[in-house]
Amino acid sequence: MIEIFTRVSIRKFQDRPVENEKITQLLRAAMAAPSAGNQQPWEFFVVTDKSKIEALSQISPYAACAKNAPAVIVPCYKTEGMRWPETVLIDLSCATENLLLEIASLGLGGVWLCAAPLEDRMEKAEAVLGNPEGLRAFAVVPVGYPDESRTQQDRFDESRIHFL
What CATH topology corresponds to 31-147? Predict the structure, then answer.
């Protein structure tokens, strides 16, 4: 998959909406992620309301780039009924990575802004979403057409590989 080697974090977006079909495709990719015992603890909020995007851009000092995104996806995880609750953050990490790879695949840009496990950020994001019962905010992912171009850094480091 070429996107793994080309995807970069995009923090500047064109003033252009993301088509609903592309949003659906992004969420389809996110939900194709593996999860422990197939528990699929995820739910996703798609935010296009400018005042809510503005509020999400204030959940942390690093989230300001969300302010001008045409859409923000907030992956959340269920807190009840999980067979393996200790793995939900891993499951959501897989789903969010799938989301980011599909963003790149569709010619869009996005960035993973951390909410979980930092309680203050999670609470701020959840307040914007209306404090959904039984759901915790995992991340904030601004999405849009890129208004910047960057090359991915090569992070391969052979010294970190150990054959036994």
Answer: NADH Oxidase (3.40.109)
In sequence order, what are the residues at sequence separation of 6 or more whose Cβ sits closer than 8 angstroms to the Cβ of residue 159?
A: none
14, 78, 99, 148, 155 from 33: Cα distances, Å: 28, 16, 9, 28, 23
pTM given for the model: 0.95
Whether 123 contacts 63, CB under 8 Å? no
pLDDT in tens, 18-61: 999 999 999 999 999 999 999 999 999 999 999 999 999 999 99
Give dist(CA 114, CA 41) in Å, integer.
18
Provide the total of helices (H) and of strands (E) in the chain, helices listed first. 5, 6
